[in-house]
Design a protein that fits this description.
Blueprint (H helix, E strand, L loop, with lengths): L17 H11 L9 H15 L8 H14 L17 H13 L1 H4 L2 H21 L8 H27 L6 H26 L1 H4 L6 E4 L5 E5 H33 L3 H5 L1 H22 L4 E5 L20 E5 L3
Antiparallel strand pairs: 1-2, 3-4
Helix pairs in contact: 1-12, 2-3, 4-12, 6-7, 6-8, 7-8, 8-10, 10-12
Protein name: Sidoreflexin
GO molecular function: monoatomic ion transmembrane transporter activity
Membrane topology: Multi-pass membrane protein
């Protein structure tokens, strides 16, 4: 497949379209990026520096796009530090191939120690990823700690509630399957939303800093908490969307599939396979659902952003902001 001419100013794919964003995230989540280290990333940066210096004749577009992807996904944009491999977005799929089946296994959900342990590990990992991919090098550890504590409380509380309910029901019944397929999902999804809400509370809460908004001419017009709230709802929705196909659907599908003798003989293997398919097929579209650069009507923002004019004198009708992940 041919690649577009390389540019360091525009993206490889059209990020205004769902298909473009989907292709971008499929590449960004590629586990091959876990093999990148300081030496290979220095080589990639040298290729990009050669291109910027005018040495473009012997460098292919594919090489340059691969180099840019490696640097953008594996090097922190503010600190310049190499992000440890376990905390890169490319680790998300491989880790969850193990974590989700373990989290949703009946043997886990009927055991208090196992449920607590797997939820604690999951939220600890999420906190480490949030810190490694923080928006700046000045983010206080207190914010990470608060988000971590809130997420652990919600995830463990909800999952332990499912454990308590499942202990009162015969295993394999329809009601038990429904509880196993929905309550842990709600707990993990709520914990993910709580985590991002706590981490980014200065962006959306009243009296907070807000996030930067630009008009149609690209001129920064200030910081808006209304845009921060819009960002939070979309980031939260994405987390719910990517948990649904790997946590809810596989468990519920086992109800009709268990009528098949071959599947009834190996239920756990079948459910694990469905969960892995759900993770692989569900995460990229969930991330691609919303562009990282969002457009919002002026009427949805605070009064100070309404009634303003552009450079040509026409009214500012829309603003854009960086949504983040």
């Amino acid at each position: 497949m041919s690649v577009p001419p390389f540019s360091d100013a525009t993206t490889k794919y059209d990020m205004s379209s769902f298909s473009g964003r989907l292709r971008y995230w499929c590449e960004s989540l590629n586990p091959v990026l876990l093999l990148e280290n300081e030496r290979t990333l220095q080589k990639s940066q040298m290729l990009l520096d050669r291109w910027k210096g005018g040495d473009r004749g012997r460098l292919s577009d594919a090489e340059l796009w691969d180099a840019r992807r490696a640097v953008e996904q594996c090097v922190h944009p503010t600190t310049g530090e190499v992000i440890p491999a376990p905390y890169r977005m490319s680790m998300f799929l491989p880790l969850n191939y193990v974590l989700v089946p373990l989290m949703m296994a009946p043997s886990t959900l009927t055991s208090v120690p196992r449920t607590f342990g797997v939820q604690l590990f999951n939220q600890t990992f999420n906190a480490a990823v949030n810190y490694a991919n923080r928006s700046s090098d000045k983010q206080p550890l207190s914010e990470i700690a608060k988000a971590y504590g809130a997420a652990v409380t919600v995830a463990c509380g909800g999952s332990l509630a499912a454990t308590a309910m499942l202990k009162r029901l015969p295993p394999g019944t329809t009601v038990a399957t429904l509880i196993r397929g929905t309550v842990p999902f709600l707990a993990v999804s709520c914990a993910a939303v709580v985590n991002v809400a706590c981490m980014r509370q200065s962006e959306w809460r009243a009296g907070g800093q807000g996030i930067r908004v630009k008009d149609e001419d690209g001129v920064v017009r200030g910081q808006s908490t209304a845009a921060g709230w819009d960002s939070l709802t979309k980031c939260g929705a994405a987390r719910v969307m990517w948990n649904t196909p790997c946590m809810v659907l596989p468990t519920l599908l086992m109800l009709p599939l268990s009528r098949i003798a071959a599947i009834r003989a190996r239920p756990y293997m079948t459910e694990c396979a469905l969960q892995i398919v759900g993770i692989t097929a569900g995460v990229p579209p969930a991330l691609a659902a919303f562009n990282v650069v969002q457009t919002i009507d002026a009427a949805q923002l605070e009064p100070q952003f309404q009634g303003l004019t552009r450079k040509d004198g026409s009214p500012v009708r829309q603003y854009t902001y960086y949504k983040g992940l």
